[in-house]
Design brief:
Elements lengths: L1 H13 L1 H14 L11 H13 L5 H34 L11 H13 L1 H8 L5 H11 L4 H28 L1 H7 L1
Length: about 180
């Protein structure tokens, strides 16, 4: 195991720019609907911060890249929802297992929710796991004001990504002890 970790350290040290690009694109595409169902950002956030804790990558660069990727990805998903969400809704409501929930009444109810309390959903979604995969798209679909979305999404991303940065960094800084425990 030590040889594998040592070889990984050598490879990533020689290719840090590539590692930062992978972390950015992982954080970005993790939040873009519908790719968010296939790609989970936690893997990238934890891996980057563990490598930073081990001294291979810079924690400030890893954090900045993860935040930028997450914020830009959420905004991309929001604007996809804004432009394609209504058409997506029309297509999905034809599916037999989802269609019964996709009435115009429920759509209008969701619009009212995002007008009144959507900022809670946007903020909390980033720390509530799978909700973060669809909430930006839904916020755009249900016409949440753009600046409201940005104002509540950005601190949500900072908190959501920050928790993984702290855990990963501590685990990376103490990786020998963590491996012994595992």
């Amino acid at each position: 195991m030590d040889t594998l970790i040592h070889n990984l350290q050598i490879f990533i040290t020689a290719h840090t720019t590539l590692a930062y690009f992978i972390l950015f694109f992982g954080a970005y595409f993790e939040t873009v609907f519908p790719l968010s169902f296939l790609l989970h950002g936690e893997v990238f956030f934890l891996t980057g911060s563990i490598l930073a804790g081990m001294g291979i990558l810079n924690i400030w660069i890893v954090t900045a890249i993860s935040l930028m990727g997450g914020i830009l990805g959420d905004n991309t998903s929001f604007f996809l929802g804004r432009t394609l969400g209504k058409q997506f809704f029309e297509q999905v409501k034809r599916w037999w297992f989802i269609g019964k929930y996709m009435s115009e009444e429920n759509f209008d109810r969701a619009v009212r929710f995002f007008e009144k309390k959507g900022f809670y959903a946007v903020f909390i979604a980033r720390i509530a796991g799978p909700l973060s995969w669809v909430t930006p798209f839904l916020a755009g679909t249900f016409k949440m004001p753009t600046w409201t979305f940005i104002r509540y999404n950005t601190p949500g991303v900072m908190l959501g990504v920050g928790e993984f940065m702290i855990v990963g960094y501590v685990a990376g800084a103490n990786y020998a002890a963590v491996l012994r425990i595992i």
